[in-house]
Amino acid sequence: MSVRLAVFASGGGSNLQALLDRFADTPHAKVALVVSDRSGAGALARAESAGVPALHIPVSGRPDTDVARDTIDALAAERIDLIALAGYLRLVPAPVVEKFHGRIVNIHPALLPAFGGPGMYGRRVHEAVLEAGCCVTGATVHYIDERYDEGRIIAQWPVPVLPGDSAATLAARVLEVEHRIYPAVIDAVARAMAGDRVAVPESRLTATETFQAGDAVPPDDQHIIAIARI
Ligand code: GAR
Q1: Res 115 pLDDT > 70
Q2: Are strands 82-85 and 54-56 parallel, antiparallel or unpaired?
Q3: Which of 13, 25, 95, 133 has a CA positioned 20 to 30 A from the CA of residue 48?
Q4: What atom of ligand 1 comes closest to residue 18's alpha carbon?
């Protein structure tokens, strides 16, 4: 089985790009659809450049039922198996969450459950982390449910907050990690769905052992998968 992945994005789509690059030529998964709530989203342009169907499904001012119907129709038309939210700033309609239960994954630019919830997206997350005086932030990949930034955590990776950081410098440091962990985790989820055994290292590392390697970004997929709960 080759897993057909839909990516939902509202913004520039750098995480989408990391997924497009990862799955450009893989037998077990491919990006088959990109959906955005914004017609001008950079993500739609990236999809078009990669030859992937790109769809604008407006959300503002429309009843949830209409958004849900359009989304479910689009997912069915492309025979989508798995959805990755990559900077998608809307709540996924409940009927879609229900239909794709356990098959929608999100990336969040902080260590959930801290700094999540309604209104906590993009730059605002990093501003809140700085304001709270945190020494550490990070990235979280998790399954979604009907609420913002809840649902079972699959993998997290820490990122240091450094003296003099602004929201922009912190966002860039976290984004570098996002681009490593999101494709690795989606790849492992897709392999598991395709029936492949996920290659978890025999002696599963604890998060502490993994991070003590002292790497600013995950050195390889194995380190990410060692701590992931897929
Ligand atoms: C990423 O940092 C992603 O984690 C965040 O939006 C950014 C999108 O960047 N998502 C959230 O804050 C969701 N709550 P991108 O468009 O370059 O991938």
Answers
A1: yes
A2: unpaired
A3: 95
A4: 18
Q: Hey, what domains does the chain have and what are their CATH numbers?
A: 1-101 (3.40.50.170), 108-230 (3.40.50.170)
Strands (DSSP E) contained in 92-162 are 104-108, 136-143, 153-160
108 is catalytic: yes
Q: What is the rounded distance in angstroms from the CA atom of residue 141 to the CA atom of residue 131?
A: 23
Of the candidates 114, 176, 113, 179, the residue with the CA atom closest to the CA atom of residue 150? 113
Ligand 1 atom at minimum distance from 86 CA:
18
Q: Is the pTM of this model over 0.90?
A: yes
Amino acid present at 164: G
Pocket of ligand 1 (CB under 6 A): 9, 11-15, 86-87, 107-109, 121-122, 125, 149, 175, 178
How far is 188 from 221, CA to CA, in rounded Å? 9
